[in-house]
Structures
1.
Amino acid sequence: MAYLQVDGAIKRYGATTALNGVSFTVGTGEFFTLLGPSGCGKTTLLRSIAGFSQLSEGRIDLDGVDLLAVPPHRRDIGMVFQDYAIFPHLTVAENVAFGLKARKVPAYAIRERVAEALTTVRLTALAERLPAALSGGQQQRIGIARAMVVKPRLLLMDEPLSNLDAKLRLDLRDEIRDIQRTIGIAAIYVTHDQEEALAISDRICVMDGGRIEQIGTPQQIYGEPATRFVASFVGTMNLLPPSAFGLPSSGGVAHWAVRPERLRLAETDTPPQFSVSLTGAVEHFTYLGREAHLTVSAQGQRLVAQIAAPPSDLSIEAGREIKLAFDLRDLHGFDAEGRRVTIAPAA
Amino acid sequence: MSAITDAPRQRQGWQPDFWSLVAFAAWAILILLLLMPLSLVLVSSFRDEIGGLSLANWQRLFTSTRYFNAFVNTLVVGFGGLAGALLLGSVMAFCMARLQIAGGRFVSMLAILALVSPPFIGAYSWIVLFGSGGIVRQTLMSWGIFMPPIYGVWGILIVFAFKFYPYVYLLTSGALANINRSLEEAAENLGLTPFQRVMKVSFPLVLPALSAGGLLALIHAIADFGTPRLLGRGYNVLATEAYTAYSAEIGSNLGMATTLSLALILLSMVFVFIQRFMSRRNVYHSNLINRPEKVRLRGFANVAAHAAVYFIALGGAMPAIVAAIYSVRKTNGPVFQPGFGLESYSRIIATLGDVVRNSLVFSGMAVLLIVVVGTLIGCLVARRNTVQTSLLDATLMVPYVMPGIVVGVAFIAAFNTPPLVMTGTATIIILSVFIRRLPYAVRSSAAALRQVGPSMEEAAISLGYSPVQAFLRVTIPLIAPGIIAGAMLSFVTAINELSSSLVLYVGGTVTMPVKIYIAINDGDYGTAASLSTILLILSGAAIYLAFRLLGRDERALL
């Protein structure tokens, strides 16, 4: 069921077009992520939904009501900001209570709901502190509590984790997902981090150059990328010319692609049916603990292979000849425009 | 993509009506108080004595020896003052930013004292010490050492150097302290000798600050009226000639006064453009991971550095110190007696209460206007980026280069005849201070607002507050300390303002600086010194308050 519906959104800044005809829907309680490189239009889109940026053309409906006719402060849409936007002159509790006061919630109810929200984000102990002394992670928790406590109709998050360090990013990512699920609120999350998008979303919308490249579940986005752009932006892809390694020629395929983790060392694994094998020279070997990366040059092509759980005595010096293999069913084909080509099984 | 890069927010929230009204009012104020008086000045410079259209005034400016000399003299004191201020200011800046100087806070306090010393009293104190009957000169003469009195062009240059060095010092020391030390280390590492390193790395990096400080010194030097008036002894500059042309008892010549004023404005503008051109590319932002360290010198070098710093700092603050001492000397009427006493102060309480009150009321009113109007225009300029607001911002640059004398003459030209007669009122003095200081308030509130960033307001709006409520409940509290600090600093300039009030005052609207000028001319030095001391105390209190609110930042005073 479409809860939020964006239809034909276009945004022009003078000669440049930030959004070029974007349409999608978000369901009730869904966690929907806008993913793309910087300048792809994802933030513009989010700000248009919040009302901080005006669409040049198009429609946005929330729960059946035309959102563009409603001024930003009456939209009842919560927002979490990249730079936190925590009010430095108010205490943590006052920050969280800020939206409730605008809604004329009685004082006793404000106290209750603020306390509850602070418990949810684990900041109860800091309620009376001023935010200046708090860490980035704590500030963003205030931001989340402040946006959630008013029980908005929709929650928008604009790269909320991008200013935090790696460890904290993982923790807060899971927290955000948990809180969103508990409350059951529809959320739109903007990020340029593909791993974050895969981890947190019900569905992902990959954008590039103001257009939607693909909308789908994380599995669809990663497993069946609709375009060459999605294939290379989400995760890593080895792109191969149509005739490399004696690959089968298929109508209209301009590029083959295969994920690094689908390449195996032919020496250790038994090659399955439909397999392609190739021999090349190792250029780099990078040991990362839980995995290892091999860059191999074979027949003028450079491929990256990822070896999961490499044995600790595995060490491959550069220049060594090595045999790699992969399953034909793991191949993706893209035509000259970069669109996915469906390949007949067992060519 | 960050939240902030997403530029235009036309309907982002401001109630269009209110802010359009602000823009309209801003233009009305600027046209009435700035553009109209200025164009009248322009027109009147093209009129002869009987009101006909002529180039006679401009012709006289370039042909009469008197005005030509004043023009040359203005350039001489301008560049001489600039050279002196650059020398003292950069020595001071280097020592304070890079060396360990004992009593550093005291030294920077002395620099502030030099900056806010009331006008005139500076020149007067130099006369007290080094004039023909000056204490220091007399003492030296009695020891058989001849010392020429301080009058004339050299005196003016010495006073300017000590008076205007804080502009160079405060800006340059800030820049020096902010150079990432890694840059200098990298230059050393790449094989540059220490001298090459200074010339090729450090100097280019502080050049923008140095030239900005130099420009302030230059503009203040060519606009300064009090120092050449008291010390020049016939060495006249454009500012003094403009005042003379305006105030001559017989044959007051407004046309000539306005022509001289325009020449002064044009001169200032030329220098502003030269400085802008010089530092057009040179805005450096370095990250400060590696702050420069202050070096501890030893032996003779250490003594020399301390001597230089304290010589400059005490020299700059000397007028204020002399005034404070003279204010508590025993007096009998205008004549100093041996010993100390509070006669000067009791005389002020007895007879000059209205002068003190005038100063406080006028400055208070002016500051109130400046804060309200300046904040509103600042918000407009910071948040609405249109051709119209850029033009507003550019127009606000004009008062920067308008010497006080010129504002005074322009106001006389504009408001002496119907429809709007204001000459002789308190209003005209308040408005002249207001228009001169308005650009500073606009700049500082726009800067404060840009620091807050739009996402704060957007957060409030997303939580259900209307744009106006969001502005009042989030933005105003956040920029309030900056606004109040700005108000305090405006108060300092307002209460010390002399040159425009000198043109505009009448018997009932005498202010403290005007009274100081009159008292010095009448030889009543005790009154002048004690009024100056009161001004210093008021200024000091305002600066203290501003620093409490803003954090200690001397550069805010410029």
2.
Amino acid sequence: MAIRLKEIDAVVIGMGWAGGIMARELTLTGLNVVGLERGPDHRPAQDFAMPGIRDELKYQQRLELMGDNSIDTITFRNQPAQMALPIRRWSAFLPGEGVGGTGNHWGGSHWRFQPDDFRLRTYLQTRYGATSVPDTMTIQDWPVSYDELEPYYDRFDKVCGVSGKAGNLKGRKIAGGNVFEGPRANDYPNRPMPASEGGAIFAAAAKSLGYHPFPVPFSAASAPYKNIYGVAMGACQECGFCTRTACEASAKASTVTTIMPALRQEPKFELRTRVFVSKLVYDKAAKRVTGVLYTDLKTGQEYEQPANIVVLSAFVFSNTHMLLHSGIGVPYDHATGKGQVGKNYCYQFEAPAAAFFPDKELNPYMGSPGGGVVIDDFNNASFDHSGLGFFGGGYIIASSGGSPPISGRSVPEGTPAWGNQWKRETVKWYYHSMHFNTQGSVYGHRDNYMDLDPTYKDALGRPLLRLTYNGTDNDHAMSRYLLSRVEGIIKAMGPAHYELRPRPKNFTIVPYQSTHNAGGTIMGTDPGNSVVNRYLQTWDAHNLFVMGASTFPQQNGYNPTGTLGALALWSADKIKNSYLKNPGPLVHA
Amino acid sequence: MADDSIPRRGFLAGAGVASAGAAALTAGLPQAEAAAAEPVPVQTWLVLTADEAAFFSATADTMIPADALSPSGSDCGVPVFIDRQLAGAWGAGAKMYRAGPFHQGTPEQGYQLPLTPRDYFAAGVEAANAWSRKTYGKTFDRLTPDQRAEALTAMESGKAAFDDFDAKVFFQRLLVITMEGFFSDPIYGGNRGKASWRMLGFPGLPATYAGKVEEYRGKRYVAEPQSIADFS
């Protein structure tokens, strides 16, 4: 029997990026906030300390910071006609667990979407014709514009101490920055990281072809930085162990490094870790959530935590799952295309390439992800899609570095995987290979969605979330096009050998590809096209706010975190300025 | 099965790297480390059976043969690494969803067996040795170096058909755990003397590389590799 606790002003479910932001912003407005986190707390001084944090086996291979599939996972199938089977261990994507969430182990690519990404359907239909978007492509405009979000993008830059170079300051284009980005009110808080040698070679070749290379915006401080919450961040040490690992220098931005130090001093905030939220308590008639049910994993006791405001800020899968399991909103029905919860699941379509330069010394283990160099000439609105047969695009990034010995050895295709020749080739190329990636968009398709699995259960006995997803013809064509652009640049770089590594026709849950999942609780203009409104407030419960990439109507050709953070700040501002004064629907449908 | 009654070779008599192994172990190492490595303790196993230890030593030595670049896989401690991994939380299936029902699924759906890594490798070694006996009349560890290479190639390409076990998938998992043992930090029992890091020119852990990307632009950075133990 659940023990009913005292009502609190706001409860936050999941203490990753969005949860951390909401907890900080709501306590700053004077609310008492409880943060519920399924995993452990993480304190950098002890949990992310040298030398143990620089352990490729523990973090990259054994996935120390990732979620525990034994208590909760999802099932997966490529097609609606198949039986979905459980993902028994994370691989293609790696949701994190514990305070900080996936933000602890991300690579720190910190992006804004293009202004036209926010009005995608309108933009495409205006530019390419009213009938240009196929019926099966379920894309829609965002209910919020780039200009509205810009101040919150700016604020999130200042939470994270982002290092980069602006390419568009208040409409003025700046060479050496991203000239395809929307206008920014301010430059990045910190100067960019130095380009890796591979990135520098790429930049020269891209420039010679008329493209516009610039340093990847990196969510880490390139110099010691104090953020807008008064939290001190260290400078990036370019250690080469960034992705899948946490930061020993507290330079890489995460809730743990940029928000928790302030929240730990905040008397209005209480953190409860190792608690597993099972359900939202929904009063359908009142269109309100009265609280949340959770099990304390340390005692086995179940609690009901009543709350005035509920912030659902878990990973994409858990957000969607929580609404489906709690009976909030109308589940997406694949057969009819009706219903919203679970609709428009979108992955990120990343396809890599590699090039080999026997004469260049690339010190492959050194440097940060911020050493990458990008061109954004082939993102959505950067180029003309006439006659290409697809929509969408993505940025192209190149770098050397971040290649530790278990997972980062690259040899030309056809090299034996073991034996004497494998050894010789491995040694021959380790210092002389570099990598490329394409950050491809994924546009919604009526066959790609999430619902509840009829067979498999989690540790609390709830049905697992079921993911039905496959790469679409549009997205494959987009990805092939991006790789063909990569090939052109690589040829201009003059390697001894190169290879493009396109994704196979069917999406497969091994190996790792990208942790950028989106959709399922998408935002829109009315309950007929979305789960949440422009302030991330659910249509079906006015005191329930859903955070994160699950609210993206589709996936753009950029990493999601920059926009996820900006949206959380935008929502928090609206709660502060409107909702608290007059609780109720913020948008009238 | 007369074969199986014959006592195993030296490294098994000493259950690991004693006798012949010791000389090979230190052969590739600089003086200081060679001295530190003496005397070589008798190898005991946490979970591996004698058959499994022999199998993993033989596969490690075939995948990572001794040459001018490094000592052999077993001399670098790969079987010790595998033993400790299979004995630990990962080997016991930690963080793995293991509820049924179980279905084979499509390749896109990934690993769908109820077996933990420890049980998976135990079953795999049994199946591989049964196939080796049927094909060559001997278990894998008793094959000649050429036969071992031929047998691994057959598993890798999918030509070897094990009874009730997917040989091709087994080969890939064996390759991954062998390479993890060769390349991971030496604290896990493999990569003895940082042999693979020396081979690659991987400096191990930096305290910091701040400023080094620019300082060593176009030039090779060279440093004595450091492991977690060196900082502790």
